[in-house]
Amino acid sequence: MISKTMKRFNKRKKGSDLGEYDPLTQADSEDETEDDDLVLNYPRNGLNPAVADLRGEEELDEEEELREGAGHEVGPGRSQGGAAEEKAARVRGAMRSAAFLLPLSCAALLVLLCAFLIPCPQGALLQMQWERELGDTAGVTSPPIALWDVDGDGLEDVLIAVTNISNDSQPMSAQSKELSVWALGGGGGQMLWRKSLREPLISVQCGLQTGSSDPLHSSACVLISSGHMIAINASTGWTLWTTAVGHVVSHAVLLPDLQGDAFPDLLIATLPEDKVSDLALVLISGRSGALIGRPVNFNLTAQGKLIGPLLHETQTGAYYVMFGLGTVEAVSLSLIYSRATGQTAASRVRLKDPTWERLRKSNSSSLIHISSVSDPVDFLLSLVVGSCQRLRNLDGVSALNCSRSDWIVLSNSSRRLSVLRASDTRPIWSLSLASIHTCPAAGHFNDDGVPDLLVHQSANGVRKVQIMDGARGRSLWEAEFVCPRLAVEDSSVLTASGQSVFLFWAGDPLAQPQNVSKVAEPVLRKLFLLHPNYPTILLELSSTTDTVLSAAVSYQAQQKDASYISVSSRPSSGRALGAQVLQTLSLRAAAADARILRLTDADKPSSFQLRKFFRRLAFRQ
Predict the structure, then answer these.
(1) CA distance 41 to 48
(2) What are phi and psi of 39, to 5 degrees?
(3) d(Cα 415, Cα 379) in Å, to the nearest integer?
(4) Is 570 left (phi over 0), alpha (psi -120 to 50) or beta?
(5) Per its UniProt entry, which superkingdom is the organism in (predicted)?
């Protein structure tokens, strides 16, 4: 030990001797060592080389001491101090681990709580499976109905005109009627609001722009009775404006802005006050409900069922209104505006289409004849996917889709169904059919992009259901059923794949064509669903003994589902009048549990495969 101490002392002395300052030699060597210092004297790990060498020597000495002291007993104080430091390090590591894992565990627990322990809202589970009694009503009268998201929850709600009759034990003349319009929530049928009326409604249409920046108050519904138009806030039912417009005979048509107030305007058809003309068209401000000018009267060439009115925008951007009585006539919107106000219409409304103007047979006539007088027309519809009721909404999207499409023309007198080309009003195709009492439903059965038509014909107790190719007029699918004795509009619902499913009422399918003069009326009316992927399969979604009066389809975008909404008359024994019932049916749930009917003897696909397919069915608007 003594020898080691002496060795370290000699080294330090030698180092101190070398480090003494000699003014004679130091001056001579400064210039020679300056360059070497610039190259060699760089810091290593932040230390001066001399310091690093000194520390290296000390570390070597300590290692030698440890080797020499191996096997010797270490003092108890030093052993206890090292153990304490090691224990403290372990505690600090555990605390750091706990500080990291504790927030992570809390976050995971919160996710599990939200996912599994908090129950889903009951409205989301039962949103399309509910029923609501409308009371004792006028029996077989189909009430006006509209679909619109009233409360802003993403579900389309139901607005329906209700006529309750009291004192039903008295004669009909002594019975009192309570008229109102109800807004029922799409998520359970709860009453959102109710508005009393003085006159029966002939139309309920929603989607009119109000100009409010609040989404809940940005749209209005228009209630049309025989003598008045009432605009109400769709969310609250509060009246926005009321207008007396004479004897109204049509629904409202959405027009472009005619007055430059940034609000779309409206058009309706009325019976003329002079009782000489056949029909009058009236312009109404969408902002205030005030009449724009005066009614414009027309003398028509034929008499029959009211056609339209419909708005059409040509390829050049010109606007024409299509209407008639048993015929289809067209008149320029700019001409209607100038006759009503005595002023020139705005530039975008003033346009006229040269192709359409050439169809005018006389320069003195303001009307353009689209159909022949000898072939009375019963229906004029836009060839657009969706129900007739939905296409009458007053929102801009529905109006735009309808105003630029081709048309479906149906004549029961000649028993002909035609599709007219909008560019030149000429028929694309035409075919003969038996009696049709409801408008066809347009949807996509094949993949050519042109809407196809679901039509049904009834004769001798047999209902023949067909899907006609919208592009060529040929039959794509057909089957025969026992006639259900219902005149309910058929429906089509667009799926996420771009195809449509088709819904129709009928009795039991007939395996072979029937030549009998009459088939007995069925006890059960059945709602069938047809999917283009499985043309030999029908799903029986529902069956009832009630008399179905009207039907519509609502959409739930978030759930990718749709509801079939029907209004039925449910007769009571011993009573002349029956109670009307509003029912909703989830299409996805009903399709997954429906009874499967095979139109052929083929056993493929299996029932398991079919149910798996329909459980995954998604719908879109």
Answers:
(1) 7
(2) -90, -45
(3) 12
(4) beta
(5) Eukaryota
Please give the helix or strand (H or E) that residue 326 lies within, else none: none
Sheet holding 329-332, edge to edge: 306-313, 319-325, 329-332, 368-369
In angstroms, rounded to a whole number, what is the distance separating the alpha carbons of residues 496 and 618?
5
Question: Could you check whether the bond before residue 309 is cis, i.e. omega within 30 degrees of 0?
Answer: yes
Q: In what order do the strands lie in the sheet with 462-468?
A: 441-443, 452-459, 462-468, 475-482
Orientation of helix 2-18 relative to helix 49-68, angle to 10°: 170
Residue type for 455, please? V
Closest CA to 412 of 459, 363, 345: 459
The residue whose two tokens read 């500080």 is 99
Q: Which residues of 336-347 are buried (b: 16+ CB within 10 A; e: fewer)?
A: bbbbbbeeebee
The C-alpha angle with vertex 208 and arms to 202 and 214, in degrees rounded to 5, equals: 135
Give the Cα separation of 170 and 172 in Å (integer).
6
Q: Which residues contact 405 (CB under 8 A, 6 or more apart)?
A: 382, 383, 384, 422
476-506 pLDDT, tens digit each: 999 999 988 888 889 999 999 999 999 999 9
Question: What number is the average pLDDT over the span 408-437?
Answer: 86
- The DSSP output letter for 117 is I
Half-sphere CA count of 100, side-chain side, radius 13 A: 6
What 399-406 contacts at long range (C-beta under 8 Å, 24+ apart), as own/partner pairs, is: 399/254, 399/311, 402/310, 402/311, 403/310, 403/311, 403/312, 403/313, 403/319, 404/312, 404/313, 406/382
pLDDT, residue 26, reads: 44
What element of type H or E holds 192?
Answer: strand 191-196
CA distance 8 to 216: 92
Please choose, from the candidates 179, 296, 298, 176, the residue with its C-alpha nearest in 3D space to the C-alpha of residue 230: 179
The helix (H) or strand (E) run that includes residue 544 is strand 537-544
CA distances from 47 to 43, 53, 62, 494 (A): 5, 10, 20, 78
CA 203, 205, 211: angle at the middle one, nearest 5? 145
| Rounded distance between C-alpha atoms, residue 394 and residue 267, angstroms | 11
Q: Cα separation of 325 and 303, whole Å? A: 5
CA distance 145 to 162: 10
- Tell me the β-bridge partners of 40: none
- Whether the CB-CB separation of 208 and 222 falls below 8 Å is answered with yes
> Nearest CA to 301 among 270, 327, 275?
327
Rounded-to-integer distance, Cα 236 and Cα 181, Å: 12
The whole-model pTM stands at: 0.77
Contact 565, 542 (CB under 8 A): no
CA atoms lying within 13 Å on the CB side of residue 183: 25
Strands 491-494 and 475-482: unpaired
